[in-house]
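Hi R.,

Here's the chain you asked about this morning:
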Amino acid sequence: MTVDSPAGRSVLRPLARRLRCMARCEVCGNDYGMSFEVHAQGAVHVFDCFSCAIHRMAPICEHCRSRIIGQGVEASGHWYCGTHCARAEGEAGLVDHV
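And here is the predicted structure, written out as tokens:
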């Protein structure tokens, strides 16, 4: 299927060609035409969905071992899902903001 632009050129054909050239997801290996890149700390990562991006990129709470998808808390160079886990690891003075 093609759609002609006002200039008479096909609009979708170049788009379809670009979609076929997308990279594979680095987590699941899926070669999905709507994959996306995440640029972080000088590296480029390719994912086919947010679930794979979270699996690879989200830090892990050093107390309960859950993925930190929200803001989390950093204390003394360690990451926690919230102040409750930070306090359980001996960090003091942290306050949750609501």
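One quick note: Residues 28 and 49 are 10 Å apart (CA to CA).

Cheers,
M.
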